[in-house]
Amino acid sequence: MIEKTLLLIKPDGVQRGLTGEILKRFENVGLKIVGMKMVWVDEEFGARHYSDVKIRRGEKVFKAVLGLITMGPVVAVVLEGVNSVEIVRKICGPTEPKAALPGTIRGDFSHVSFTYSDVVDQAVRNVVHSSGTRDEAKTEIALWFGEEEIHNYPSVHDIHILHYKAEHIKQMRKALPTK
Questions:
Q1: What is the mean pLDDT of each run of 10 residues along the chain (179 residues)?
Q2: Active-site option among 129, 151, 157, 168
């Protein structure tokens, strides 16, 4: 199924200059960027984004992640593609960087454990956030983006990733200008 998901490059990723490298990984597999912006997150907005963390993980973790998301600019991205929620999560790797395999974003760009983050009383700096489920993606995209900020356009990846029929690809060739 073609779906959309939210990716956030958190302040630690932006400040380390990893934005281009991170986006390249998603474009390389054929996911399409259909929305993108850089924003400073204030505490009110951060609290809305992480509202479930207070319930699931407690006040201490909630305050830590709020501190991280508000410490610098965030690049918010809407990615579109086949099973994009699952694919983006796989490319990002597990939430705890220590458990992330090399080749994933977290495995390549971070390494700390939840235990260490607890000792230093900081949120784990794991570079990115990605929606965990289709429902979460819909909710998060609606929080971060207005409908007018999501774009629909053809991409060269659409031909192969979305499996255009061979006859359609052959017709495209006929439409090319001749020399």
A1: 96 97 97 97 94 82 88 97 97 89 94 70 83 96 98 84 75 73
A2: 129
